[in-house]
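Consider the tokenized backbone below.
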């Protein structure tokens, strides 16, 4: 019987693992992927994590994992398929095993959103990608498009501009939502063109991506843009399937929880990108992991469930 089971090993899960060990809780982190770090693994450069300017996302994930390991955190690689959250003893049902615990910290993060246009599914992995850090190198000296206007789209475009011949950024509005500093860096890239007020309606190609069918939203004008690669960066959606019907969620599927990470069920906490929050950053996810463990300790003390 664990005091707490942390589901997920992104910055929220790893911070929770560190804080749980320091609180001398009997804790387990369940991670699905063989590598820890969550979305950080797909980030080429993290330029806003205090004290570590410009660190590679993979290295930051690795460092957090190493920190947790050093403190003796226990990790299991398993896919959680169901949570039984009612009562003082909760069950985390995995493909390999069922785990019993007094509390759960759900830190399952978020994943990329799909564009949902013809050609996207069929050509994923064949010129269509959601991860410039992972796949950018395949497009050295080629022409690529990045779809989206948030931090990820801007970071992807800047990264791709270093090796690709030309990068076309396609954004549905006339202003980016991504950070100002990224916009400035992007405008300094000589091989980047921005198509404002433009949407991609189809990804063209049979064996591999060959281009995009675009529509200018104000004029309705359509055109084809030949490209070798299409990077889709249109936001994220929470990995919150496990919560469905068990924990309160908002319209977007995010688990309803405040800064204290408390969900609608006592003893279950949500930390990081999976919970309702304004500002999703590595830093705020890590902060959630710390807050979740404080809430776990409080719950265990208040309800004296450690005796169960
Ligand atoms: P995001 O900030 O939600 O931006 C998504 C972008 O995709 C928006 O520009 C949006 O357009 C566009 N979009 C959404 N649906 C679309 C569709 N169907 N067709 C065309 N365009 C569409 O998502 P993100 O860039 O993936 O970032 C996710 C979160 O991680 C954000 O909170 C971000 O701040 C954070 N993040 C932080 C850092 C950092 O601190 N260094 C790095 C990466 C990510 P509109 O603008 O018109 O809505």
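A designed sequence for it:
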């Amino acid at each position: 019987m664990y005091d707490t089971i942390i589901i997920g090993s992104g910055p929220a899960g790893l911070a929770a693992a560190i804080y749980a060990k320091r609180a001398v809780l009997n804790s387990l982190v369940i991670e699905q992927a063989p590598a820890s770090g969550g979305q950080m693994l797909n980030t080429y450069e993290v330029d806003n994590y205090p004290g570590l300017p410009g660190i590679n996302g993979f290295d930051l994930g690795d460092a957090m994992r190493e920190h947790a390991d050093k403190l003796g955190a226990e990790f299991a690689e398993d896919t959680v398929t169901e949570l039984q959250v009612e009562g003082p003893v909760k069950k985390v049902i995995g493909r390999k095993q069922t785990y019993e615990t007094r509390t759960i910290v759900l830190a399952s993060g978020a994943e990329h959103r799909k564009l949902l246009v013809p050609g996207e599914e069929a050509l994923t992995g064949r010129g269509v990608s959601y991860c410039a850090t992972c796949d950018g190198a395949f497009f050295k000296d080629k022409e690529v498009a990045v779809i989206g206007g948030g931090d990820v789209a801007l970071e992807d475009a800047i990264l791709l501009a270093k090796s690709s011949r030309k990068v076309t950024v396609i954004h549905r509005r006339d202003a980016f939502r991504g950070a100002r500093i990224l916009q400035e860096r992007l405008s300094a890239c000589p091989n980047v063109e921005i198509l404002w007020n433009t949407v991609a309606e189809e990804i063209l190609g049979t064996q591999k991506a060959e281009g995009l069918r675009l529509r200018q939203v104000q004029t309705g004008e359509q055109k084809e843009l030949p490209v070798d690669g299409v990077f889709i960066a249109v936001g994220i959606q929470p990995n919150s399937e496990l919560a469905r019907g068990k924990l309160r969620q908002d319209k977007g599927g995010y688990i309803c929880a405040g800064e204290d990470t408390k969900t609608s069920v006592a003893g279950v906490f949500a930390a990081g990108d999976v919970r309702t929050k304004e500002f999703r950053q590595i830093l705020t996810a890590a902060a959630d992991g710390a807050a979740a463990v404080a809430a776990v300790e409080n719950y265990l003390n208040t309800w004296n469930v450690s005796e169960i």
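The mean pLDDT is 95.
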